[in-house]
Design brief:
Number of helices: 0
Order of helices and strands: EEEEEEEEEEEEE
Radius of gyration: 17 Å
Helix content: under 10%
Distance between the termini: 47 Å
Shape: globular
Largest sheet: 4 strands, antiparallel
Number of domains: 1
């Protein structure tokens, strides 16, 4: 079986895990140390893995899903935390400071399409998207907003 422990090493990796009759096999596909995830889960959009790294005091990044190659990094100092939700070829980035950034994912960058102030205090909860609504909780309230298809 392949080695899964990184023991203190930051980075992101991909493994292929298969049932092999009576056991399991693990194949390491790739590892990169160009970005790392601390309190955020990435999303996959059209073969592009988009995440929010704690490197450089918080920044978005994109990797090629097939090989782990870094495609781009966003602006540094973007915050301590962000929750990501994919919606078609767009990603909703709900930052810990209460701002929701909406951008279109591409291999060359993340053009920001819209930006909304959604919360008034620290926002640690992951937003939920239900049909055409997004539910967001900040430190003091739960709010629902309608999402546009435009």
């Amino acid at each position: 079986m392949g080695e899964l422990s990184w023991r203190g090493v930051f980075g992101i990796g991909a493994w292929q895990i298969r049932s092999d009759g009576g056991g399991w096999t693990v194949q390491n596909l790739w590892i990169t140390r160009e970005a790392s995830l601390f309190m955020s889960s990435p999303v996959l959009v059209g073969g592009i893995l988009v995440g929010f790294s704690h490197f450089r005091m918080g920044q978005l990044f994109a990797l090629d899903w097939t090989n782990g190659r870094l495609l781009w990094r966003g602006d540094p100092r973007s915050g301590e935390h962000a929750s990501l939700v994919s919606r078609g070829n767009h990603v909703l980035v709900f930052r810990g400071d209460g701002w929701l950034d909406v951008g279109e994912v591409s291999r060359s960058g993340f053009p920001l399409l819209r930006k909304y102030k959604m919360g008034d205090s620290t926002c640690w909860g992951h937003p939920a998207v239900v049909d055409n609504r997004i539910l967001i909780r900040d430190g003091s309230r739960l709010a629902a907003y309608r999402l546009s298809d435009r």
